[in-house]
TrEMBL record:
Belongs to the 5'(3')-deoxyribonucleotidase family. Pfam families: NT5C. Coiled coil: none annotated. InterPro entries: 5'(3')-deoxyribonucleotidase (IPR010708), HAD-like_sf (IPR036412), HAD_sf (IPR023214). This is 5'-nucleotidase. PANTHER family: 5'(3')-DEOXYRIBONUCLEOTIDASE. It comes from the Bacteria.
Length: 281
């Protein structure tokens, strides 16, 4: 079993040895089906009770090199604004925060939400309130069609690697991670890896789906493929390279096209149909 971890921008840990080295420190064995990356510390989630561990690190490239036996098409999936309806829930919280009817808050927002009349530095305070007092990570609705599309793609062999920058509030990491995992399971979002980190390119994927302009530009600058998931915050980004999906039916089709292309290049059989695994040759 491998357990992964991120210790900073570049260092990701892990090794099968970690578990052997630290087995004695655990009251329960760690889960084997979910790998968790954290930016500062390492947590194994087991029965919703994170257990902190110390570990040694190695680069992600080394780690991946050790995993080539299980080579998969990795889809890097952003959560907020792509799978979870971040702006929809923030609109509700902002109406409460400002004491105004929700209809007064336009849905056409840009990054930082200046259209909602937030004064200087207020966005940070509002965001913190939403996370810590209104359970943002546990209360958002999924974006329509996202869990279903990810389940179908996963069944076809796509390895879903969720990458999210949610550990931005100090001493709130345990709650942030727990709410995130509970939300993913509650909505049956299929995934294999869960990475909490700012630099999404550090975990590497064959294809990303992302809504943040900054992250799209960063991924593109590394020469990696990224599909823009459209919302009002990213309309100014040029669609190409990589393309743009306005909803999850479009995103699913684009991801599937690229995944099938990847399988063809490797001489692998194609899945029997949407949501179905490939037939063994
Ligand atoms: Mg996002």
């Amino acid at each position: 079993m491998l357990v992964f971890v991120a210790m900073g921008r570049r260092d990701l840990a892990v090794t099968p040895d970690i578990n052997r080295e630290h087995q004695g420190q655990l009251t329960n064995p760690p889960r084997v089906d979910t790998q968790v990356y954290l930016s500062r510390k390492f947590v194994i989630l087991h029965n919703q009770a994170p257990v902190e561990m110390v570990f040694k690190s190695q680069s992600f490239r080394e780690l991946e090199a050790n995993m080539v036996a299980d080579q998969r098409f990795i889809l890097g999936v952003d959560l907020d604004g792509v799978v979870a309806d971040f702006y929809g829930y923030m609109r509700e919280v902002t109406a409460e925060w400002k004491g105004v009817p929700i209809e007064e808050l336009t849905e056409e927002v840009s990054f930082g939400l200046p259209e909602w009349g937030l004064v200087k530095d207020e966005y940070g305070r509002l965001h913190r309130f939403a996370v810590t007092q209104r359970k943002l990570f546990g209360a958002m609705r999924p974006i329509e069609g996202a869990p279903q599309a990810l389940r179908r793609l996963s069944a076809e062999g796509v390895r879903i690697r969720i990458i999210t920058h949610r550990l931005f509030i100090s001493y709130f990491h345990q709650t942030a991670v727990s709410q995130t995992v509970e939300w993913l399971e509650d909505h049956a979002v299929q995934y294999w890896d869960l990475c909490f980190m700012e630099d999404k390119t550090a975990v590497e994927a064959q294809l990303y789906i992302e809504d943040s302009e900054k992250n799209v530009e960063r991924i593109r600058s590394k020469g990696d493929q990224v599909i823009i998931f459209t919302n009002s915050t990213n309309r100014n980004l040029p669609d190409h390279p990589g393309g743009r999906a306005d909803d999850w039916s479009e995103a699913e089709r684009m991801i599937r096209d690229r995944y099938y292309e990847w399988r063809r290049d490797k001489g692998l059989a194609l899945p029997a149909g949407p949501g179905l695994a490939a037939l063994e040759k």
